[in-house]
Amino acid sequence: MKAVSTIHAGKAGAAATAGVAHGHRGNVKAVLALAVVLAALPFCFTNSFYFDVAIRMGINAILVIGLNLLIGYAGQLSLGHAGLFGIGAYASGVLCGRLDWPPLLSLAVGAAVTGVLAYVVAKPILRLRGYMLAMATLGLGIIIYIVITNEAQWTGGPDGMAVPSLGALGWEVSGDLSWYVLVSVLLMATTWGALNLINSPAGRALQSLHGSEIAASVVGVDTSRFKVRVFVLSAVIASIAGSLSAHYVGFITPGIAGFSHSIELVTMAVVGGMASVFGSIVGAALLTVLPQLLVQFDGWETLVYGLILVLTMIFMPQGLVPTLRKRFEKRGA
User: Which of 46, 90, 104, 139 is the most buried (most CB within 10 A)?
Assistant: First the structure.
């Protein structure tokens, strides 16, 4: 019996190892495909406007990937992520602009502060579920927005503040192509990290939370610890994206931490596809470029924008990427 058990254990271990290897190869192919697309896009751009939209798309995609880890995979709704984005942006603005700290140090400190804050508030907030959790995260975002708006001596208040350029060791990120390359590399790194996390044992534990926290705890998953960890990770990613955005745009206002921005980010995750890393990228890209395309509908762009979102959710309730993937799989079967 002992020998049989050993044989079964060996087979299970070999199967798990093969699954991990297969997942790793799939991740490599996916990131390489993303790299090819990102490398080809600049050849299609005819002026700085297209670079600007692409850079904003990339920053939003980085942020939404982190948000989707929390909402789509772990099943923890957050309506305050714009506030965490705002902390990163204003950390770079205040530390770098007011106190003359190096930009990269300001970015790192902002991410660390955001991570600590997320850890402190995660334990009480993530005990809640459903709409109560949504209201708690909304309250967190509103508090951050109010603090940013009221601390005018540091943040400039409602008028906003200028943010210096990003650079290190005498080298400054300037020009459309430099920013595009930087954001593209960070997007690929974020995508790679998220895909590997999802295919790891920790990632499978996170996904079990979305299905049933009770069932996950029964099989030995420390639900509280994993929820706190993914919330902190998502918050740090949001902070880094906020710092990047602040340095890129060069000027920030409290609106970036507002409720409407949080709703926009959640919408990107939902439209692109919940529990889908590439859905996050597609959703961020679509909802970043869509307002630019709807400018021609003078006075009606908001109505058309809302109509597109409603129709998407009616006919593709799981989001664009998961729905299209299932349809292609059915055709291929």
Answer: 90
CB 74 within 8 A of CB 230: yes
How crowded is the C-beta side of 110, counted as CA atoms within 13 Å? Answer: 31
Q: State pLDDT tens for residues 127-183.
A: 888 788 889 999 999 999 999 999 999 999 999 999 999 987 778 898 899 999 999
Tokens for 107, please give them.
Answer: 């970015």
Angle of helix 130-150 relative to helix 259-272, nearest 10 degrees, comes to: 140
Other C-beta atoms lying within 10 Å of the C-beta of residue 22: 11
Give the containing element (helix H, strand E) for 167: strand 167-168
Burial class (CB in 10 A: 0-12, 13-18, 19+), 306: exposed
The reported pTM is 0.90
DSSP string, 263-298: HHHHHHHHHH-TT-HHHHHHHHHHHHHHHHHGGGST
Amino acid at 232: V
Residue carrying the six token digits 């503040």: 161
Q: Which CATH number fits domain 26-332: 3.30.70, 1.10.3470, 1.20.58, 1.10.150?
A: 1.10.3470
Other Cβ atoms closer than 10 A to 88? 31
Dig out the tokens for 118 from the structure. Answer: 């997320």
- 259 Rama class: left (phi>0) / alpha (psi -120 to 50) / beta: alpha
Give the rounded distance of the alpha carbon of 116 from its chain centre: 18
